[in-house]
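Page 42, continued from yesterday. The earlier attempt failed because a stray header line got pasted into the input along with the sequence. Redoing it now with the clean sequence only.
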Amino acid sequence: MLNVGPTSEGLFPEPSIERLKDMGDWMKENGEAIYETKVSPFAKLDWGRCTQKVKDENTVLYLHVFDWPKDGKLVIHGLQNKVVDAYALNDKKKRDLVVEKLTIKRLR
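This time it went through. C-alpha cells are written below.
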C-alpha cells in the first residue's frame, strides 16, 4: 500500500515524488510480470513469488526474487515443463540464464 497525497499547501513532498518516479521506472522494465498475469502455480517459494501469463502456446513464468539463495540457485519445486528460455526482464540483451533440471530417481 502506498499513501501519497498533497500537503496542506497542495504540494506533494519530494520523497513521494521520488518514490513514484522509482516505481514508474521499475514498471517500465518489469510491468509485463505484473499486468494481465495470474497467480503462481506454486504453493510457496522460499525466495520470492511467481506470476504467470499464457503467451501464444506457452506459459510464461515470472519469478519475483526477493531473497536470492546464498548459493545463487533458484530451486523451483514442482516445475514439470521444459524451460524454453530464461532471462532477466531488465537485461536488454536478454542473455540466457543457466537452467539445470534436477531429476531425483528412486533407488531400487
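Notes: The first strand starts at residue 48 and ends at 55.
Reminder to self: strip header lines before submitting.
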